[in-house]
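To: structure subgroup
Subject: Chain for Friday's discussion

All,

I'm putting the inputs and outputs inline so they're searchable in the archive.
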Amino acid sequence: MKLKTFIAMGLLSMFSLGSCNAQQKDNTSKKELHYTMNESAPKNYYLLTMSSNGCNFRILVNDIPVYGFWDEGTYSGSYPINHFIQKSGTQKLKVELYPAYTHEDLGINSEEPLYIEIKKRLDGQTLDDYVAVLTNPIPKVQKGIPYYEYECSFEAEVPYEITELDELVDLSQEPNIEQQVVAKYNELKDMYEKKRFSAFQKQFDTRNKRIWVTNYIPINKGEKDDNEDIERMKKFYKHVAPIQNYEMRFFGDKKLVMLFSKEDCTYAFRLYDGGSKMWAIPFFLGMRKGSDKLEIVF
């Protein structure tokens, strides 16, 4: 077995996802990602496919939100989930079902409001080669209820092991955590609007390298994609929406925190072009053991 240990540093990657400063100690951790890679293990890709009818929904893998739909009508699509899988073994899946937007009075308006599958394929194979790992596990739902929650698990095999969450503290025990989170969001907002794009980009180092590693993306391609994203932001998106009218939620065994907009339930950190276009950026804040500084870690 060829097992290698890496310390990786990356730049900004949005991965087509589509969320007073805390006093700092001198020993705050560098933005690095520690992981191991078993070169002889299969490089599997995992995909979540979804089809909704009569509901809005949020899907979480290992207590981290993967995808949510908050709109009228139905939804059908798919989303890669490798970057929510930290190591081989049993993975937790959670589904939250809500009434469809503007039809809240009807409740969840179907007995089978959401069909999901988790599929996998090997690196080098095509989209046609995906095979089902988990198929439609959600039981029938009582029509008209205001909320439904379902949990189960599935097995995954990946060649990497990432220990990032093990290095973080329980944020629910941190004093004044909401003020610290809002301060960090405003720090990022200020950085972007003052056109400190290089500094803004570096805030995402750890998060983005994890995305590259878990999706087998070469560093040079990841950096190229990140730089293209930054250039697109600089060209089209001048402002960041005020950090207000939000809901704060903990994830990852309360080691991660994110702000969601109450207006549309999606990410509270959002770029605007001054017109109708908006780019909502998902990221999770965490605090490393031995530090009192929030940073983008996931």
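Points worth raising on Friday:
Residues 1-29 have pLDDT under 50 and may be disordered.
The first strand starts at residue 3 and ends at 8.

D.
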